[in-house]
Specification:
Blueprint lengths: L2 H4 L4 H12 L2 H15 L26 H6 L7
Length: about 80
């Protein structure tokens, strides 16, 4: 690996690259998932968001009749 092409690579990063290349194909998905998990920034909101399910209503058929409710101005304070 030429230093001018990719820049300096630490010994740990070089070892990680080598180990990844040696992984059996059946282990790649698990290792990749773990690497992605390690890169997920902290504080990323989880699903569902905090506001999910925040609507309080006397009706239980909101999902079924959403078009009619929206046409009536559902959620408007009028």
């Amino acid at each position: 690996m030429a230093a001018g092409t990719l820049g300096y690579m630490s010994a740990e990063r070089e070892e990680l690259r080598r180990l990844v290349e040696e992984l059996p194909d059946e282990q790649v998905a698990a290792v990749l998932a773990e690497a992605r998990r390690q890169l997920t920034p902290h504080g990323v909101p989880s699903w569902p968001p905090a506001w999910f399910g925040a609507i309080e209503a006397d009706r239980t058929d909101i999902g079924r009749h959403h078009d009619e409710l929206l046409a009536e101005g559902f959620g408007n304070a009028s």
